[in-house]
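Reply to dn_fold:

You asked what the input looked like. This is it:
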Amino acid sequence: MPMKPINDTLPIQESLSSYFVRLARKHSCSPMTLLRNEVLAWTKIKYSREASSRFTSNYIRTMNGVSFYAKELAEALNNLTGQSELDRCSFLPLTEVLDPRGNGLLHHRPHWCSECFRDWRASGNEPYFPLIWMAAPVNFCKTHQCTLSDTCPHCGQAQPFLPKHSHLDHCSHCGKWLSTSTITYLKDIDGFSLYQYNSIEEMIVNGWRCSSLLNSSSFINSIKVVAGELYNGSIYEMERELGFPKGTIANWSKSNVSPSLPNLLSFSYSLGVSPLEFITLLDNQHIHPNIVMDHRKQASKRKGISVDEFSLVKSVLDSVISSGISEKSMQSIARDLGYTVTLLRYWFKEECQAISRFYREYKNSCRIKNEQKDIDVVKDIFKRLTDKKTKITNRILQNELSFHGVILSRPHVLAAVEEERKKRLLF
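and this is what came back:
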């Protein structure tokens, strides 16, 4: 019988890296020996002994995520062990709805609960690393209400994802037991941290069960449904109300951009649902946006503006627009009025856009005039030196241009010089 992952249908399902280490112990070899001698031959992973340090420290941890390494190693282990569902030991079922780079998905080093290790040893159960401990947003054990450890209590070293030996609850460096008596218990867990834990549990347990709906099309459709029903069809309004930077959710509504796990959790929490509930949304009846988003850094409240101030500012902006030109930028106008440009763009969006357009046109016309002045200087220099029958060397030309404050390396100056040289070659 092939070795099965521990608790493969429970929220504390075993991670792929943990399964790999236990598989090595079953075959009486170290995890790296199993990887190099057996598993890598079944993958497209390029590995060399010279790059082994980077591979084990940077890349191998992603076998629990949604990366190329996770896919290749899960598939190889499925083939070698005669199984077909080891991808569930990673976050691979969520590949199509999470950032493919895995930003914010996984811890950079293993985390564990000392109480869990102690309980498993006491009850005769084999210690292992659940997948939920690998998730970067998870820093506590819900069962024991304590923080997770990430260094050996004896030597203080962080643990690799593939240790030197195959005993998961013992330090890869000093060999001592990783469980510690110095445990930080949590008096209470804030609502968002508990929400993150429960949501990731749900993804682990049920993600593969609704895999047909876990794709970018379902995610994009849910965004559009909620925006249409709750925000008048405006994704920009949705971003503003939920406190997301402009363009964040709009980018997610494009098929080639997916959110990181932390952003997905913040987004779904703001809507009052779990990520799976949002992605598999069939209607919007259970969407109730959270008014207070204590999990996110609150955006500073915009300064209010009275009716009189509104009228005064609008008259100033309208006068600039009526002139059809603006020699000042919006930043400069906002500074003169005593407001921030962000506030003006919030209350006077169309006016600010028009003034910004006029300012760009003004700057562009100034650029064209200045370029023409430089070109006229070049023509004058060539005419004057030619009349004197002076040989126009690069040094002489550079000195003449510098005297008039013209820089030779600018494209329009170089083009003018080239044009004048061609004219004189014709005569």
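Residues 291-295, 297-302 have pLDDT under 50 and may be disordered.
Hope that clears it up.
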